[in-house]
Specification:
With 450 residues, the protein is mainly α. The protein is built from 18 helices and 6 strands. It has a two-stranded antiparallel sheet. Strands 3-4 form a two-stranded parallel ribbon. Helix 6 packs parallel to helix 12 and helix 7 packs antiparallel against helix 10. The longest helix has 37 residues. The chain is elongated, with a radius of gyration of 30 Å.
Length: 450
């Protein structure tokens, strides 16, 4: 019998039963539900609401249920709509009437808030570890290819020469911000909601601070109505996850481009590529393509949650049951993406010669030529115009002679010729955070200290 239908004379309509059930989605919360229930009953015993013997029975019974679920012997029943009712009913069947005391001084409203907070707190820790691993792989790949030169791009057009290591490290710092966002989000996840009950708190002499201590929460929620109606922490987490996926999707797009015959900058390992059902020669970057597609799905989860919450009156409403699938799918998708990408980055081959070859005759040292004129005292806008006219000649800059350059400005001297080569252009970049070799080395050392 469903314990929440005590005032009803009719059984729930079968279609409604199926429609309202969440057990297929929320059963993964069982370890958090059991841990929360065990801490709750310890508090009830401390406060004299249940006896120590009853608390021992309940805690032991819950441990047995956990073992059954993990072994696969636990029977889920479609008539019991969620994991909370399943565990409570199983406890009653296991230890008898004492099991009915487990729900004293709590509601499923604060119970589910506790479970999702415990779940998300753990998963944020897991995601931060995965982000750190991916950062380490990026750092290692950048160090191994420290002096490789490639075109830097704006508008997907050759802009200025940059070190490949510098380009790759841009993703390191994106991921660093992702780590900081998750850490910050964790502060708002890590608040203990149990004791808010349905919405108004409890008239029984409970000790919320004790439960928080047992479950290692640094604080308890301040307002019981807000507590049971709050899903900000889930929305905030999924928003942070969207940015993680945005960053990996951007990297995916570059790897897809770089692995084409037109670019030829990298080669992805066969373990991370797929073939064609009809074209034997194909080696497709499907992992990267799927990341782009899955990123859109995570964006959809964010809008799902925001739309779900946007006009809900206080306090709890059943709409909020629909927070589980977007939360769980976001966590699993981001985890698998980060895990796979760490190995993908480690295994990809960098085509140094092809990168450097692509810079030949691309005019990407034009900015350095303008800066040369600035150092000779010519205002930048005038220098920009002079170099623009030089580019119209159509001859690669590195092939121009000093006499040809002096036709455009008399200030050109022999010392201009070396900086027209991409390798020399890189050396000119001495500003902090720039693509100069010394600055990239400094950047990598800074990254290692994080």
């Amino acid at each position: 019998m469903n314990p929440v239908r005590s005032r009803f004379t009719k059984k729930l309509n079968k279609e409604v039963e199926s429609f309202t059930s969440s057990i297929d989605v929320d059963k993964r919360l069982y370890p958090y539900d059991i841990a929360g229930s065990q801490s709750h009953v310890r508090m009830l015993a401390k406060c004299g609401i249940v006896s120590p013997k009853e608390a021992e029975q309940i805690i032991s019974g819950l441990e047995g249920i956990k073992t059954d679920i993990e072994s696969g012997s636990f029977k889920f029943n479609d008539e019991l709509e969620d994991i909370h009712i399943h565990i409570e009913q199983a406890l009653i069947e296991r230890i008898g009437e004492t099991g009915r005391k487990i729900h004293t001084a709590r509601s499923r409203n604060d119970q589910v808030a506790l479970d999702t907070r415990l779940y998300l707190r753990e998963e944020i820790t897991n995601l931060i570890k995965l982000l750190h691993t991916l950062q380490e792989r990026i750092l290692k790949k950048a160090e191994a290819n420290l002096e490789v030169i490639m075109p830097g791009y704006t508008h997907l057009q050759h802009a200025e020469p940059v070190l490949f290591s510098h380009h790759l490290m841009a993703y390191f710092w994106m991921l660093a911000r992702d780590v900081e966002r998750l850490k910050d989000c964790s502060k708002r996840v890590n608040i203990m909601p149990l004791g808010a009950c349905a919405l108004a708190g409890s008239s029984l002499p409970i000790d919320r601070q004790y439960v928080a201590q047992l479950l290692e929460f640094p604080q308890v929620s301040e307002n019981s109505i807000d507590t049971v109606s709050d899903r900000d922490y889930i929305v905030e987490f999924v928003n942070a996850a969207c940015l993680i996926m945005t960053h990996i999707s951007r990297l995916s797009e570059e790897l897809i481009l770089w692995s084409t015959q037109e670019f030829g900058f990298i080669e992805l390992d066969e373990e991370f590529t797929t073939g064609s059902s009809i074209m034997p020669q194909k080696k497709n970057p499907d992992v990267c393509e799927l990341v782009r597609g899955k990123t859109g799905r995570i964006y959809g989860h964010l809008f799902h949650l925001l739309t779900m919450m946007k006009a809900l009156p206080l306090s709890y409403n059943r709409d909020m049951q629909e927070d589980k699938y977007p939360l769980f799918d976001t966590v699993e998708t981001v985890k698998s993406t980060l895990s796979i990408f760490a190995d993908l980055i480690s295994s990809m081959e960098i085509k140094k010669e092809r990168m450097e070859e692509s810079l030949t005759g691309d005019f990407s040292t034009a900015t350095e030529l303008a800066n040369y004129l600035v150092r000779k005292g010519i205002p930048f806008r005038k220098a920009h115009k002079i170099v623009g006219k030089i580019c119209l000649v159509g001859k690669p800059l590195e092939e121009l002679t000093i006499l040809e350059l002096q036709q455009f400005s008399s200030v050109f001297e022999a010392d201009v010729c070396p900086i027209l080569a991409p390798q020399e252009s890189i050396k000119q970049k001495t500003s902090d955070g720039g693509t100069g070799l010394a600055q990239v080395r400094k950047q990598i050392e800074t990254a290692k200290c994080l």
